[in-house]
Each structure stands twice: as structure tokens, then as C-alpha cells.
Specification:
- The structure holds 2 protein chains of 2 kinds.
- By secondary structure, chain A is of the alpha+beta class.
- Chain A is built from 3 helices and 10 strands.
- Chain A has a 7-stranded antiparallel beta sheet, sandwiched between helices. A 3-stranded antiparallel beta sheet of chain A has the order 1-2-10.
- Chain B has 9 helices and no strands.
- Chain B is globular.
- Classes of the chains: A alpha+beta, B mainly alpha.
- At the A-B interface, helix 1 of A face helix 4, helix 5 and helix 8 of B.
Chain lengths: ~200, ~300
């Protein structure tokens, strides 16, 4: 009767320190990932408070963005200086309106005026929304093409996607705007939602 | 009667043949050849118009991206096959390293850490810490995991085994990054060559630390936090490299300035490689000398 002899490669047992080094390495990796994600969140969502008592506006804006407050047609405009090829934009502007105006009237006004300044301007959608404080507003998404005027820069046209939220406050319409290059529009949309969540008009 | 002296030939001393591949030597050859090719490609194009440094064709960029792999196969891998005692599994861990980099590290960066959206805008210390705790640590941990759960501890019998296997897995990582840069981007051939060399040098340099950590864990009796601390040090080094590279490649303001000086980035990467290779070589040699004094057995020559 033949006997089967099985030969295995000798298994080297690990020492206490070797085993605990392995466990702690995995633990350290988890801690590093958590720390990295915290740093990422802090960097991406770092904000500063913008307040204009004269215009009656307070909002949280991305900390590293360029802020303009001297424009003729807006209260403030924040742009991401690092964004290419189009600087991501958040803007709050105010239009004086009559007592019978509705947010839809304001949007019609924008629709009429914008094709004069934006090439290939198209409205993609309109929808009624309710803001955080319960007020009714209209949200409009649109797109246009931005050309570089300087021919020596030889750059391609940029397709820009934008969204406006129009809400009435007493005798003025507040227009909250977000624009970005269409491929990164969705990625940065949360910044616009953050602005809407934190925007106070008083 | 004449007397002719009988000349006795001195007894020939047989030199003991070193049975293993000399890891530092082969790795230096690969690094220097890659450096020379890149410098010729970048600087030579100014004098020799036949060098298509500004082409954006995929094929030449692909060739440059794969050059470190070809060099490794010709020098290190072939050297290993010719050695009396071979280290087996080198090709396997190199391929697994590439797969892990492409399948885990790259998706983690693009979908979770999102470093391209926030890291470049940070200040110096923000970059160092941000890179250390995201891509830096994860990259080193994955290299460690590939080695730890494939060949360790059976194949880590000598200190240079750790370096040899770590170089192989790091090369797998570097090849994936090189290919992604060469094929996904719109860079010129010279820019691709500079980036390929920088990626390869930094990956190889910092990867060797992981090999050293693992081999010491196998041969010595380090404390229980040896690997975690070592991983952190390696990650911190990669973070520092990332931050200093950002400084190095930005040129000063001047009439001839073009906005960036990538050749300084290449010099930084090669400097990192030289410093880490020299430091680890010294540390490993000292450890072997100590071991020889204690046990009478020497590991590396």
C-alpha cells in the first residue's frame, strides 16, 4: 500500500512585532486617508463671509477667489483665479423692478438682453424653486460661447454654462448667477448651492 | 654549467564571484542612461534640428514613457537572470505594482482626493501636508502592501533583496504615471521626456525606502511602529519633493524667462535619487557591517 507524502513550503510564523507592524500600517493608512480627506474638504470648502450693509447682502464665498465689488451691474462678483479656460464665476446683482413684477418678467428681460452680449446664447431650462427662507424663485439654466477677442492668443472658443436664480425682494429683483466652462459646470455646482444656502438679503 | 633560475608563477588567487546582481550598480546605470537620453532630447534639439523635441505625436512619447521599463529589462532583469543566485518574482511584482497604481491609486486620486482641484493652490506647507496625507501616503502604502502580501518575508533574505523588489514595484508605479502623462496630455516630446524622468527618479528613490523598511522588519527586530513611521517618512519625503518641485520649475522674472524651468525639476528629481541611494547604501552597508561583527556573517559585499 503506497503512502502519499505531501510536501508544503515551510510557513514562517511572524513575530509579535512583525504582526503588529502589519496591523498598524493598515491603521496608519486609514488615518492618513481620513486626514487627507479632511484637508481636501477644508481646502475645497474654505469660505469667507462677505457682507455689504449698504446693499443689504451677506454671503459665504470661496476663500481663495478674487472678489470684485465695484462693478456697475452687480453687488459682488467672485471668480476662481486658478480655473482654466474660464474663470468660474459667482455673482449677485440687483435690478430695480415695479410693484407688479414677477421673477418670470425679470428672466424675460435677461433673455432679451443677453443675446446682444453673449454669442450663441440659449436657454436650456426654467423651473420654479423654493429658497431656504421659503420665498419663491425661478431658476434658469443657459449656455453661450465665449470667444477670445485677441486673435494673437489663438485660443478655441469656450462653451460656458450658467444658471441664474431670480427672487424678488421688495422693489428689486436679486439675481444670483453661476457660470463655468461646461465640462466643469457640474463639479463646481456645489459652490453655487452653498452660496444660495448662505445668502442673506436684508 | 649554467644555472637558470626556475621562475615560479605566483599562485593565482581565485576571486570569489559575487553571486547576486549588484542592485545599486544596475539601478545607477538605468538612471544615468535615462538622464542622458532626456538631456540629449531636450538640450540637443537646440543644436540638432533632426531631434523632434516639439512633436506631439503619440508614438515617440510612448517610447519615452516606456524607456525606464526597457532599461530595467535590459540591465536589471537581464542581470538578475545572469546572476548565480537569482531573485525570483521581480517581473511579477513590477506588473502587480503597475496594476495596483492604475487600478487603485489613480482612481483614488481622481475620484476621492481630487488633488488637482485644490493642492496646487495651497502654500508650501499646505502642499507638503496635503500631498503627504493623500497621494504620498497612499502611494507608499500600496507599494508596501504589494511587497508585504506577495513576497515578504520569504524572498527578503538579504538587505539588498528589499531594495531590488522595491525598485521593481516602484518602476511599475512609475510606468503607469508615465504612460498616463504621455498618452492623456498634449505635451511635447521634450516636456514628456522631462516629466517621465522626474516621475521615474522620484518613484524609484522613495520606493527604495519601503524595501529597506520591509527587509529590516524581516532581519532585525524593529519596534511595532517601524512600518507606520517609515511609511510616514517616505510619504513626507514625497510631499516635500512635490512642494519643492513646484518652486523649482517656476522660473524667475526676466527678459529670457519662459514661465517655467522644467530642467530644474529634473535636477531636483535626480538629486533626490542620488541622496536617497547614497543614504540607503550607507545605512545598509553599516547594518551589514554591524551584523557581520555580531554574527560573523556578511550579507552584502
Amino acid at each position: 500500500m503506497s503512502e502519499i507524502v505531501e510536501i508544503y513550503e515551510s510557513q514562517e510564523t511572524l513575530s509579535f512585532k512583525q504582526r503588529w507592524n502589519s496591523y498598524l500600517a493598515v491603521f496608519a493608512a486609514l488615518v492618513a486617508v481620513l486626514a487627507g480627506l479632511t484637508m481636501r474638504d477644508n481646502a475645497l470648502t474654505a469660505s469667507l463671509t462677505y457682507e455689504d450693509l449698504e446693499a443689504g447682502v451677506r454671503a459665504q464665498l470661496p476663500a481663495s477667489w478674487l472678489l470684485e465689488t465695484e462693478g456697475p451691474d452687480y453687488i459682488f462678483r467672485a471668480q476662481d483665479p486658478a480655473a482654466l479656460p474660464f474663470k468660474t464665476l459667482l455673482q449677485v446683482s440687483v435690478l430695480p423692478v415695479g410693484p407688479d413684477a414677477t421673477p418670470a418678467n425679470v428672466l424675460y428681460l435677461l433673455e432679451i438682453s443677453r443675446p446682444n452680449t453673449f454669442a450663441n446664447y440659449h436657454v436650456l431650462s426654467r423651473e420654479n424653486v423654493t429658497l431656504r427662507d421659503g420665498s419663491e424663485a425661478i431658476r434658469m439654466t443657459y449656455t453661450y460661447v465665449q470667444d477670445e477677442r485677441n486673435p494673437f492668443l489663438e485660443s478655441l472658443p469656450v462653451v460656458v454654462e450658467g444658471v441664474d436664480v431670480v427672487v424678488l425682494r421688495r422693489s428689486q429683483a436679486v439675481i444670483v448667477t453661476y457660470r463655468d466652462e461646461q465640462s466643469s459646470f457640474d463639479d463646481n455646482l456645489y459652490r453655487f448651492e452653498n452660496l444660495l444656502q448662505t445668502l442673506e438679503i436684508f | 654549467m649554467s644555472f637558470e633560475p626556475i621562475l615560479l608563477a605566483p599562485e593565482e588567487e581565485l576571486e570569489e564571484q559575487y553571486p547576486y546582481r549588484r542592485v545599486w550598480q544596475t539601478s545607477w546605470i538605468e538612471a544615468v542612461v535615462l538622464l542622458i537620453v532626456v538631456v540629449v532630447l531636450v538640450m540637443g534639439s537646440r543644436f540638432i534640428s533632426a531631434i523632434p523635441a516639439n512633436t506631439r505625436e503619440q508614438l515617440p512619447k510612448l517610447a519615452v514613457a516606456l524607456l525606464p521599463l526597457v532599461m530595467w529589462l535590459l540591465v536589471s532583469y537581464r542581470g538578475e537572470q545572469r546572476a548565480l543566485v537569482r531573485r525570483s518574482g521581480l517581473l511579477r511584482v513590477m506588473i502587480v505594482g503597475g496594476l495596483v497604481a492604475n487600478g487603485i491609486l489613480v482612481p483614488l486620486d481622481e475620484r476621492l482626493f481630487l488633488t488637482d482641484r485644490w493642492l496646487a493652490q495651497q502654500g508650501f506647507f499646505g502642499r507638503v501636508l496635503g500631498y503627504t496625507f493623500t497621494i504620498g501616503f497612499m502611494s507608499q502604502f500600496l507599494k508596501y502592501a504589494v511587497l508585504r502580501y506577495s513576497l515578504w518575508p520569504r524572498r527578503f533574505e538579504r538587505r539588498m533583496d528589499g531594495v531590488a523588489y522595491a525598485l521593481a514595484v516602484s518602476l511599475g508605479f512609475a510606468i503607469v504615471f508615465n504612460l498616463r502623462f504621455a498618452l492623456d496630455g498634449d505635451a511635447t516630446l521634450s516636456a514628456t521626456a522631462l516629466r517621465v524622468a522626474s516621475i521615474t527618479f522620484s518613484e524609484l528613490a522613495i520606493g527604495t525606502i519601503i524595501g529597506y523598511l520591509l527587509v529590516e522588519l524581516r532581519l532585525s527586530d524593529p519596534p511595532v511602529f517601524w512600518i507606520p513611521i517609515g511609511l510616514f517618512v517616505a510619504a513626507l519625503l514625497s510631499g516635500l519633493y512635490y512642494a519643492f518641485r513646484g518652486i523649482a520649475i517656476v522660473s524667475g522674472i526676466g527678459i529670457g524667462a519662459t514661465g517655467s524651468t522644467p530642467i530644474r525639476g529634473l535636477a531636483l528629481a535626480f538629486g533626490l535619487l542620488a541622496v536617497i541611494y547614497a543614504s540607503l547604501g550607507f545605512i545598509i552597508n553599516s547594518a551589514d557591517t554591524r551584523m557581520e561583527a555580531l554574527t560573523g556573517r556578511r550579507q552584502t559585499l
